[in-house]
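Is this the right way to post structure tokens for a design question? Let me know if I should format differently. Anyway, here goes:
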């Protein structure tokens, strides 16, 4: 658990976890995993805003503002951040983009083949 928290805040994992880091950056749900990892840094920030003195409505609005800004900037640079993380693990530049593109291409080829098999007659080719 502590290793994952460290990874979520930017600590480089040992080499034996390289395949897991590659999977983390290229899996089907890599965006959701990224947002979850960014929450490790955002939740404590929001907790600090919530514990500040003042009316609860003001504190809740401050938490909402902090969370929205933090998630906006985290997600705006999502691909670059993931590529940087893979580079820190020792993978070549653009490894994540290349692997995600290859997986998307394979999935699209499968969908296209199913479509052609279902809606095209052999004479239409």
């Amino acid at each position: 658990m502590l290793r994952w928290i460290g990874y979520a805040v930017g600590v480089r994992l040992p080499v034996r976890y390289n395949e897991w880091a590659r999977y983390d950056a290229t899996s089907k749900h890599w965006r959701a995993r990224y947002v979850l990892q960014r929450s490790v840094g955002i939740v404590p920030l929001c907790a600090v805003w919530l514990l500040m003195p003042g009316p609860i409505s003001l504190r809740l609005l401050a938490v909402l503002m902090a969370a929205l800004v933090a998630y906006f900037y985290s997600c705006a640079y999502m691909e670059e951040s993931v590529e940087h993380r893979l580079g820190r693990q020792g993978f070549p530049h653009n490894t994540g983009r290349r692997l995600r593109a290859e997986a998307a291409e394979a999935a699209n080829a499968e969908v296209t083949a199913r479509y052609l098999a279902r809606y095209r007659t052999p004479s239409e080719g």
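Format looks fine. Someone answered above. Worth noting: The chain has six helices and no strands. The chain has a mean pLDDT of 89.
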